[in-house]
Amino acid sequence: MALMRITSPHAHGPMSTARVMQNVLLATVPGVIVLTHFFGFGTLVNIIWASILALAFEALALRLRKRPLGFYLGDYSALVTAVLLGIALPPYSPWWLIAVGIASSILLAKHLYGGLGYNPFNPAMVGYVVLLISFPVQMSSWAAPRGVGELPGLLDALQACFTPGNFDAVTMATPLDLLKQNNSLLMDDLWQQNAQFGRWAGIGWEWASLAFLAGGLWLLYQRVFTWHAPIAMLVALALTAALFYDGGSSASGGSPLFHLLSGATMFGAFFIITDPVSSAVSTRGRLVFGALIGLLVYLIRVYGNYPDAVAFAVLIMNFAAPFIDQYTQPRSYGHAARREDNE
Amino acid sequence: MRQVYDFHGGIHPPENKHQSIAAPIADAGIPEELVLPLAQHIGAPAIPVVEIGQKVLKGQLIAEPAGFVSVPLHAPTSGTVSAIEDRQIAHPSGHSARCVVIATDGKDEWIDHSGLADYKSVDRSELLTIIRNAGIAGMGGAGFPTAVKLSVKAEVGIETLILNGTECEPYITADDILMRERAEQIIEGAQIIAHLVQPDEILIGVEDNKPEGIAALQTAAEGTGVEIVVFPTKYPSGGEKQLIEILTGKQVPSGGLPSAVGVVCQNIGSAVAVRDAVIDGRPLISRITTVTGEGVNDPRNYEVLLGSSLAYLLEQADYQTNKNKRLIMGGPMMGFTVPDAHVPIVKTTNCVLAPAETELPAPPPAQACIRCGMCAEACPASLLPQQLFWFSQGKEFEKAEQHNLFDCIECGACSFVCPSNIPLVQYYRAAKAEVVQLRKDAEKSEHSRIRFEARQTRLEREDAEKEAKRAARKKAAEEKARLAAEQGSTEEDPIQAAIERAKAKKAAQAEGSNSAESAGEKLEKAVVTTRKRLDTATAKLTAAKEDGSDLVDALQTGVDKTRAKLEAAEKALREHQQAATTKEQPTEEAKPIDAAQVAIKKAMAARVADADKSPEEKAREALQKLEARLQKSEARLAQGKAAGEEEKIITALESTVERLREKVTQAQSQANETEVS
C-alpha cells in the first residue's frame, strides 16, 4: 500500500484567494448601483469594457510568461483591478482611455513586476495615475448628477464609450473641483450657488460613498481585511479636516464630513488601500499606512494641484510600505518579557 | 472564578472529536510482535540490555538510558527478544532506527514489581529515580523525559504546576477519555508531581469542549487543592507556551524554559504514567491512543502496548484500506504522515488518523501570496508568517531570523487560513533546518579561519626572526670587515680567507668521497631515501584515488619518476658493490679493465711513497719535476716558433714558459729554505 506523504497541517480552512476576490467584487455592487443611479450607465459600461480588456491583457501576459491560463485567470484578481479602475474613471470615458488604463494596470503595474502578489504598487491606481497625467482633459470631466443635468441612456453610454466623437456629454465640475477653485465664497455661499452640492457633500457622491462604506463594512465582517488601514485613513482625514476647518470661511478646506463623503474617500479606504499586496503587512504598520494616506489625501486636495488625491496618496504610501514594515514588526510571543528582564 | 487570559491569534478548525469519544477505552490486546524503537523520546537513544533469544517478562528493563536526557525502555509484555535491528519507525523523515523486537508469548507474565505505599515518606531524589526508571517521556507529543523536566531545582521557585488537558488538536480524544475514565489517577499524579516541584498552586487546564471530562476531574479534585481551569476552545491553546499564557498571563521568554516564569507544565497522560510508576511500580509500557477518521469503521480510544504496529491497531478499529490514502500519526494540524502501516506505536503516539480523501483533501496547488495577512492574524506567536515566507523563499535567512523564525511553533494555523494554500509551515521547517546548517558551517569556517590566522602569524613571526638573525649576522660581518680594514692590510683579506676555507673544505670532502667505503654508504643511503619517498608517494596516490582527487594523475607521474630513480639508485648500488668485490679480489683479468682504477692506484701509491719522503726530498723532487716541465715547454715554444705558428699560440706558450720559470725559481728557493731549516 503506497501511502501519501504530506507535511502538516493536513486540514485547511475554507478561505481561498478566489473567494477573497469574489467577495471584493460583490462588495462593490451597492456602490456601482448608486453611481449608476446618479450618473447613468457610464460607470457600468466602464466596468464591463475594462473587465473584458483586463481578462484579455491578463491572458496575453500569462501566455507571454508561459503560465497556465486557467489557474491564474481563476484567481479573479484581474477582474478586481478592472472593476476598481472602471469605478474610478469618469463615466462615459472613451474606449481607448480605458484600454490605456487597463494596459498600464495589468501589464505595467502587475505583470512586469511578476504578477499577482509581487506588485509593489496598486495596479488600478497606477492605471488611473497614468491616465490622469497623460489625458487630464478626459480625466477631469465628470458627468452631471441626476437632477442637475440630463442623464444619458444606455445606448448613449455605449456610444460615448465606443464612438466618442459622436457623443457630447453633459459634464460638470465636481464638488472637489469647486472647492479647489473657490477663493472668495464662504462655504455656505458656495453650497448655495452650486447645484452639485447635496446634503453633506456632492449630490450622488455622498450616497455613493455611503454605499461603498456599506460594502467595505461587509468585507470587514467577512474578515477579508482588518479594520486598521481603512479606519486609520478615515480618522486621519477627518481629524486633519477638522483641524483646518475654520467654520466655513472662504479659505476653509471643507468640513470633515464633506471630505469623508467626497470623491474617492470611502472607495479608497475600503477598496484601494486594503489591497494587501501593496500595503504594509502588520496591523500596526497598516495603521500607520492608512493614517498617512488620510493625511496626504487632505494635503493634496487642499494644497496640491489635483482636486482628488486618493490615487497619488496611495501610490506614495505604496513606496513607503516596506519602510513602514521595517519599523512596525509586531512583538512576538516571549520577546517583550525578555526585554523587560534585561531592563 | 479564576481569570483566564487570551493569546494572540489562533483558529477554530472543525473539531471532529465526537466520532472517537463515544466509546470507552478498549484494550487493544497483545500483537504477535512488538517493535520498540530505542529512541521514543527527545534525547539520546537508550542502550539495549537484552540479547537476542533472551526471554523477557512484562515490565522488564530491556534498554537503559544513555545519559541524563534519555529514558529506559521496558518489555510491554512477556516473550522472547527476536531481534535487535533497524526497523522503519514513525518519524516525519520516514527513516529507520534501532529497535528491540519482541516475539510475544501471550502469557503477559509480569516481572516482580511493587509501588510505594506512601510516596511522601521517600526522598525527592528517590522519587525522581523511580520516575526516571519507569521510562516516562512527555506523552502529549514532544516526548521530553519527564524526570528531567521535574528535576527543577528548588531555588528556581515554581509558582504554578500546570497539567495540560487542553487537547486542542482536532480529532484526538485520548486526553478527554483519560479525564472521563481515570480522573482520580490524574489528580493523584498531579499531587505526586506537586510533591516534587512544590508549587504554590496546581492547575489543570481544559478547553470548554470537554464538559464530561471537566466534570469528572472536578469531582475527583474536590478537597485536593487541585484547580480545574476551563477556558474557551481555540487552537492551539494546548501549546505549552499558549497554555501558560492562558492560565497565568505570562509569556515564556523566547528561547527560555517555562521555569523562567515559575511554571512547570506536564501532560495529564504523563501525570497518570507518573502515578502508575510511583503507586503501582508499573513502568510506561502502554498508552491511550485515539484511532479515528473515516478510514476506520470503529473509531475509539485504545489502551495499546507500546511497539504494536499501526496496522495491528487499525485492524482492531475495522480499517477500510480502500477509503484511506494517508495515515497520520497525531492530529490533522501537527501530525505527520507515516511511510507505511507497519511502523510501531511509541510513547508519544496520541492519535492515529486515517482520513478519507473527502475528509481531509490533498492540498490544491499553491497560488501566489497576496500578503492578505490572515496568517499574521492567526499566528499564536505573533509572527508575520507572510514575511517569513517571503524571506524563506528568497533564502534571506538573516531577515527571517530577525523576524523571529525560531519562535514559530509549527502549529500550522497560518497554513490553515492561507487563502493561497501555501504550505507555509513546510517553508519554515526548511528555513530553520538551513539556518541550523548555516550556523554549523559558520562555526566550522570560523574555526578554520582562526587556525589559518594562527598559522599565518607563526610563519610571519618565524620569518621576522630569521630576518633579524640575518641582519645581525650581516652587521657582525660588516663590523669585522671594518675592524680588519682599520687594523691595516697586514691582515689577510677575510673574504679571501673564507673562500680558501671553503675550498679546503670542499677538497676534504672530495677526498672523503674518494674512499670506496663512503661511496658505498652514500649509494645505500640514496636507495633507502628514495624507497622512503616512493612509499610516501604511493600512499598519497592511494589516498587521492580513494578521495577521487584531481591530483591522481600528477601523483601517478611522481610515483613513476620516484620508482625510476629508485631503480637507478639500486642499480648504481649493485654495480658499486660488484666493483668493490672485484677490488677486494684483484685478478689478472680485472687489471686492464679499468685504466682509471689503475691510475688512481698509481697515484695513491705515489702519495703513500710521498708520505715517506722528507720535506727536503719532496721539495727537490718538485723542483726536478718543474724543471722537466720547463724544458718541455721551452722545447715546445722553440718548435712552435720554428714552425711559424700563430701568434696567439706563441704568446700562450711564452707565458707558460714564463710562469714555469717563476715556479722553478720559487721551488729552488723553497728547496734551499728547507735545506737550511
Cα separation of the termini of chain A: 58 Å
The CATH architecture of the largest domain in chain B can be given as 3-Layer(aba) Sandwich
> Tell me, what's the shape of chain A?
globular
Mean pLDDT over all positions of chain B: 86
Please give the number of β-strands of chain B.
17
Quote the beta fraction of chain B: 5-15%
Count helical runs of chain B: 21
Please characterize this protein's 3D structure.
The complex is a heterodimer of chains A (343) and B (677). By secondary structure, chain A is an all-alpha fold. Chain A has two domains: 16-173, no CATH class; 181-326, no CATH class. Chain A has helices at 17-27, 29-39, 42-64, 69-73, 77-88, 95-110, 123-134, 136-139, 154-162, 175-181, 187-193, 205-221, 228-244, 256-260, 265-272, 283-303, 310-327, 335-342, and strands spanning 142-143, 171-172. Chain A has a two-stranded antiparallel sheet. The model of chain A is unreliable at 337-343 (pLDDT under 50). Chain B has 677 residues and is of the alpha/beta class. Chain B has 21 helices and 17 strands. Chain B has helices spanning 18-21, 124-133, 146-150, 174-181, 183-197, 211-221, 240-248, 268-280, 310-316, 374-378, 385-393, 397-402, 413-417, 424-487, 494-514, 516-547, 552-584, 590-593, 595-612, 615-643, 647-676; strands at 26-27, 33-37, 47-48, 55-56, 61-64, 73-74, 79-88, 96-104, 160-164, 201-207, 226-231, 263-267, 286-292, 300-305, 328-329, 336-337, 351-353. In chain B, the strands form four sheets. A six-stranded mixed beta sheet of chain B has the order 1-14-13-17-15-16, sandwiched between helices. Chain B has a four-stranded antiparallel beta sheet with strand order 2-8-7-4, with no helix packed on it. Chain B has a four-stranded parallel beta sheet with strand order 11-10-9-12, sandwiched between helices. The interface between A and B is large, with 47 and 74 residues.
